[in-house]
Amino acid sequence: MRDAIIIAIANCSTSVFAGFVIFSILGFMSSEINVPVKDVVDSGSGLAFIAYPAAVARMPYPPVWSILFFTMLITLGIDSQFTFVETLATGLFDKFEYLRNRKPTVMICLSIIMFFLGLPMCLGGGVYIFELLNYYAAGLSVLCIAILEVICVSYFYGFKRFMYNIQMDMKIHVPTFLYGYWGATWCFITPVSLALYNFRKLFLALVYIISNQEHGVPISIPKNIQALGWLTTAASVICIPILAAYVVFSRRKGGVR
C-alpha cells in the first residue's frame, strides 16, 4: 500500500512538472512563430517529434539537448514495454500455470511477437496506424475496462470483503482514514468520474459522426478507417461481458452458484 501511494504521488507530481515544461516550450514556439499557443501543435506524436525537437534546436548546444531528449524517449518506451510484456505474461501464467516453469521462453516469444506487430508502424503509413491505435485502443477502451474493474471489485465481489482480504489475508494494516478514503474512491468517486468522462467522449463522437467531422484524431484519417478504430476499441471491451456470460452459463449448467 505504501508503494502504491508513493507511485501515485510520484506519477501525478511528474505530470505537473511535465506540464510546466510543455507549456514553456509551447509558449516559446508560439512567440517565435507568432501564433496562439493552441495552434502551435496538437498533443501526441506531434508534441514529441515536432514541438520538442524544434525547441531544443533553438537552445544553446542543441546536440546535447537533442541526445538527452531522445534518450529520455527511448527509456520511456522501454519502460512501457516492460509493462506490456509483464501484463500479458502474468495473464498467461495465471491461466496456464505450467508456463511458469518456462518464463524466459514465454517472455522471449512475447517480445518477438510484439516486435513484429509493431513493425507496420515503421512503414510509410505507420504514422496513421500509430495515431489510430493511440487514439482508439489506448483511450476509451482503457477507461471502460477500468470502470468495469472497479465496479466488479467494489460491488460484485464486495468492498468489505476485498478490504478483509487486504487486512487479514495479506496482513496489510489499513488506517481508518485510508479505509474511508479507499471506500469513497473505489465505490463512488472513481466509477462516477470515469463514467462521466466516457459519456463525454461518446457524446462528442456522436456529434462528430452526425456532423460528418473527424473524431478528434490528430491527423486526417478516412471515415471507414476510423470505423476500424472503433472496432479496435470494442475488441478489448467486448471480451469482458462475453467471458462473464460464459462463466455464469457454465456454472449454472454445472449446478454451481
Automatic annotation (TrEMBL):
PROSITE patterns: NA_NEUROTRAN_SYMP_3 (PS50267)
Location(s), subcellular: Membrane
Family under the similarity heading: Belongs to the sodium:neurotransmitter symporter (SNF) (TC 2.A.22) family.
Name the record gives this protein: Sodium-and chloride-dependent glycine transporter 2
Domain of life: Eukaryota
Keywords: Membrane, Metal-binding, Sodium, Symport, Transmembrane, Transmembrane helix, Transport
One Gene Ontology MF term: metal ion binding
Any one biological process term the GO annotation gives: amino acid transport
One GO term describing the cellular component: plasma membrane
Membrane-protein topology: Multi-pass membrane protein
Taxonomic lineage of the native organism: Eukaryota, Metazoa, Ecdysozoa, Arthropoda, Crustacea
Main location: membrane
Entry-linked InterPro entries: Na/ntran_symport, SNS_sf
TM region positions: 6-28, 67-93, 105-129, 135-157, 178-197, 227-249
Binding site for Na(+): N11, L76, D79, S80
